[in-house]
Structures are given as structure tokens and as C-alpha cells.
Amino acid sequence: MNISNLIRIAFKALQRNKLRAFLTMLGIIIGVAAVIAMVAIGQGSKQSIHDQLSSMGSNMITVLPSSNLNGGVRIAGSSFQTLTDKDIVALKREAQYITEISPSLTAKGQAINGALNWPTSMQGVSPDYLDIRMLTLKDGIAFTQQDVLTSAKVCLIGQTVIDNLFPNGENPIGKVIRFNKIPFQVIGILNPKGQNAFGQDQDDILIAPYTTVQKRILATIYYQNIYASATNEAVTDAATTEMTSILRASHRLRDNEDNDFTVRTQAELINTLSSTSGLLTVLLTVIAGISLVIGGIGIMNIMYVSVTERTREIGLRMAIGARGKDIMLQFLMEAILISITGGIIGVILGIVSSNVVTLTLSWPTIVSESSVVLSFIVCAVTGIFFGYYPAQKASRLDPIEALRYE
Amino acid sequence: MSKTILEIRELKREFQMGSETVRALKGISFTVQAGEFVTIMGSSGSGKTTLLNILGCLDKPSIGDYLLDGVDIKKLSRDELAQLRNHKIGFVFQAYNLLPRTSALENVELPLLYNKDISVSERRERAIHALEAVKLADRFDHTPSQLSGGQQQRVAIARALVNEPVMILADEATGNLDSRTSYEIMSLMQDLNGQQGKTIVFVTHEPDIASFSSRTIQLRDGKIQKDTENKEPRSAKEVLANLPVTDDY
């Protein structure tokens, strides 16, 4: 018997009992739809956590001066001055995994506009810094490399500072404010970022070229931090390793000497959160998978009933020339048709319900191709696995007894 | 000289029922030539059903030979027997055994689905032809529940004809039908035998039905009691014509 006859026979047999075929399918439909919707919700939440972290610069790498031995006493890193322009030059020249790099140093002080003043801090950075931290301007322009070279007295202003220095809503762009008695022209307004994870107001800041802060305010040649961004999140580890070796070389550290700096990434935080939502996805998938297995058992159950109920039909088919194999394939094909049709409907239902969840609850969902393909394969396998035993039972019937079955 | 369709030699069939051995057939020999219309008669327990199962290649003899159209079935496997049934035997059952909720045409096509040499168009053509042969040309799309008992049995006969078998094997084919319909079926059988030369083996326990055949084999206790040639079989058509018209209702 060829395959088209086989499908035809199985299809006709199912057609004779549409309602039962549908009810059997229902288990599979719900199982598959559940798998797809659950995975979509899990993936969606994972992605949204990820996106939120990325907005803080998930590929950001920070270099800090590190504690070091000084006559046997470990000294706090922050009081050390190890990072210099030489390091920036070396990193820019040699590092392959980083795209942007910026030194950073922060000065505390009083910002003054006319009669108003506000205690804040000024961060000196290079123009790359805005990209590294994903900062954007609400108005005005950013300073340029030219401003860095000339130690220009220009700054970008954060919302909190604006609120305190320009309370009447005038536009600060072009205005001159003073910071630690040095006049700065405001050239851009930062988009508010709100508090960071530790409750620190990220908008209470002035950003200026690092050379300006270095020379005109702090009078130092050292940097407090170096910020860099890796080409993408996946290579942050490689970038970390690379930066470490470049900085060691730049600092002329011998092999037996500890690093006098620390390189940190956001990756750990991301990994933790991703693995939490990954766990969520696994849990949801397991639950959905269980419902798929139950659907499969439903198929097996119905196929057994069907074999018993259709004993005479099986006897007749055998009498008129069906081999055991033909009967087996017919019932197997019926089970597979049920599970695959159920699978297709389930996939559609799963995608639709994912979208409904997104629309009504505004939960982010991502229908991954792999979950669709996987649940479809699981369906076919379920059909074969749970259809096999009933089909085998049918194929082993004795035609004489089957024909006389009442 | 006509061809031998069926040859049985010293056929025995025994069943093991617990510790007891039941000897259902105790040595039977006969041959059936092409074009014969044979009825096999016997009361229950005569071994009629066992013989039918063996003739239908659903069962194998314990001892003895059975050659169907020259093929010794003893040597065949389960699958080969299925193929033999598909090619050489047309079954007609007492309970029709049609697939429910399936059109007459599809029911008739069924045996051909298990024959991979037959194309879709040929299958359809032969099924239509077979239904026409049993005078059901206007009932192709009817499902069994929309057909009377006699019509259902005629669909079953069409199904038995569609694979062009060497022998039609009928098992109490009129058992579920009233006399008028029974005669109609017998008339059809006689037509198939007389006009188309089909070989028919008809198992029944009704002597009335047996009188329409050209030969009757009487079984008793697993042996052939009588094997008689029926020189002048009754014509079912005439009997049908002479039946009083019942207009009681």
C-alpha cells in the first residue's frame, strides 16, 4: 500500500468521527498552544529584563584603580592614582573588542547661576562616554574632541541641576554657570535617567570634557575610572581579558605582581537576571510539556477505544487483503494526523494567544521559532509514540475473531 | 476442460482447547471447478465455519493441502495470505460489514486500496462498474445507513467483485434478509454465476437457499456427508416472480 492510499484511509477514518477526532486533538492543541505561549512569555520577560539592563550599558566595562600593597599594607584603590592617558592611548591602539573608550574623573563642587546655587558634581569624560552609558541629549549639542583638546569650558547639564539653578523654566542652553568659581557654558541638556539601582540620582550631574576637569578643576594627570564599551555583550569577557593584559603591559607589571587596577563588567548582573528568567522559562516549558504528554495519553486512550470499537472493521480490512502492517500504519497514521493537525492548530493558537497577552496585559512576548519547531516535532513524536501500541494491538488481531466480534 | 479453482485434499483442522483437542474437520477432500456454484451446508458444529475460514485463507489446515487457483496456501506467510485474499477472493458476509458513514462507492473501492498496482482512476472506474453490475448505479453516494439490507448486501457483493476474484465466498449472505430480499440476492448470485461465469462458494444452513446452486456439499461432524450435483437448480428469478405480492400494509 502506498503512502497516499494510507493517508487517504486514515483521513477517511478520522472523518467518520469528526467530533471524537477533534476532542482527542484538543489535548494536543492545548498542550502545544501552552508550550508556545509560555515560552513566548518567558522569552519576552527575559528579553525585556535584558533590554532594561542594556539601556544601562550592558556591554559597559569599567576600569578602576585597584588596591595595592604599599609596604605590606593594602591601600584602598580609590586613593590610588594609576590610570593615565598612557593607558587610554594603549587601549585605543591595541584593544580589538572595545569600540568606545572614555576616561572619567569627578569633582565635587558648587554650581552657581546668579543668586542660585546647588551642590553637585562634575564629571569629566570624552565624547564617547555618552554612547558608553547610553546617555542622550534632550536639547543642545554634545561637546566634541576639539573641546577636549582645548579644555573648553563647556558642559552638559542634568535635569536635577536645571531644576535647582533654573527654577523658572528658562532654557539653560547658552547660559553660563559657574562651577567651583570657573564659568562653564551650558551647551546641552541630558535626558533624565532617574535613579540608579542604588537610589543615586543620576540626573544630579554636570558633564564636561575630561581635560577641563583635569586641568582647570582637579589639577591632576590621573583618571579615576576608564569606561569602555565592548563591541557587543557576547565579547565582554574577551574584552575584559584583553584590557587587563594591555593595562598590565602599560603599567609595566611583572608576572608576579598583582593588578593595580580592576576591570569590571555588567555581565554578572545580567547573567543572574537572565538565568532567573531562564529558569522561569524552563518551569513554564515543563508545565506545558506535561500537558502535551497528557494530550498524548489522551490520543493513546482514544486510539485504544477506537481499535476495540472498530474490531470488525479491522477484521474486514484484513479479510479483503490488508496486511498487519497496513492496519498498523493506518492506525499510526490516524494518531499522527490527529497530533500533527492538533499541533498546527496549537501553534496558531499559541501565537495568537501570545499576541493577545501582549495586547491585553502588555506583557512582552517573543514567539521563538525554536519553540514552534520543537513543539511540532514533539507532537509528531507523541503521535507515533502513543499511537504505536494501539496500532500494534490492531495489527495483531486475528481476522477470524475480529470479524465475529460483537 | 474447465480450470480447477479450489482443491482440497484430506484436510484436517484441530484446535487445542485447554487439554482437549477439538477436531473440527476430520479429513475432507473436494475440488471446485471454475464456473461452479457450490453451496456448503451443515448444521452448527458441522465444521462449516472452520472450513469457510480455511477456504477464505483466513486460517490454515492442520493437516492436508489446500490449493487455491494452484497456490498452496500452506507455504504462505500471514502477509502473503492477505495478498492472496486481496487478489483471489471476494468475501460476502452475513452482516454485510460495510464501513459506516462511508459512501457505497468508497466501500466498494476498499479492497483496491490494498492493491498498490491499481491507480486512483482505475480504482474508481472498477468500483463504478461493480456497483453497476449489482444494479446500484444510482446509489454511489449513499452511506450504509441510507440503504436497505438488500442494498447493503449488494454493495458488499460489489465489493467482493471489484478485485475480480477467482472465487466469491459468501458466508450466510442471506442470513439477515427476509425471503424476498434473499431471493433477490440469490438471483443476483445466479446471474453472476451464469452470465459472468463467476465461481461461487456459498455457505448456508438453509436447504431452500442451497436449491439455487448447481452443487451442494453437506457437512456433518467434520466430514462430508453428501456431495450432490444439482442437475436442475431452481431459478431465483422465477421463484421471485411467483412470490405472492405482499400488500398487507
From TrEMBL, chain A:
Primary residence: membrane
Domain ABC3 transporter permease C-terminal: 286-399
Pfam families linked to this entry: FtsX, MacB_PCD
Transmembrane segments: 21-42, 279-306, 327-352, 372-391
Domain MacB-like periplasmic core: 22-245
Alphabetized UniProt keyword annotations: Cell membrane, Membrane, Transmembrane, Transmembrane helix
Subcellular location as annotated: Cell membrane
Domain of life: Bacteria
Membrane topology of the entry: Multi-pass membrane protein
Similarity comment text for this entry: Belongs to the ABC-4 integral membrane protein family.
UniProt xrefs under PANTHER family: ABC TRANSPORTER PERMEASE YTRF (PTHR30572:SF4), MEMBRANE COMPONENT OF TRANSPORTER-RELATED (PTHR30572)
Protein name: ABC transport system permease protein
Organism, as annotated: Mucilaginibacter lappiensis
From TrEMBL, chain B:
Keywords assigned by UniProt, alphabetized: ATP-binding, Nucleotide-binding, Transport
Feature: compositional bias, Basic and acidic residues: 226-237
InterPro entries: AAA+_ATPase (IPR003593), ABC_transporter-like_ATP-bd (IPR003439), ABC_transporter-like_CS (IPR017871), ABC_transpr_LolD-like (IPR015854), MacB-like_ATP-bd (IPR017911), P-loop_NTPase (IPR027417)
The keyword 4Fe-4S appears for this protein: no
One Gene Ontology MF term: ATP hydrolysis activity
Pfam families in the cross-refs: ABC_tran
Tagged with keyword Nucleotide-binding: yes
Domain ABC transporter: 6-246
GO cellular component, one term: plasma membrane
Location of the region described as Disordered in the Swiss-Prot/TrEMBL record: 226-249
Protein family: Belongs to the ABC transporter superfamily. Macrolide exporter (TC 3.A.1.122) family.
Name of the protein in its database record: ABC transport system ATP-binding protein
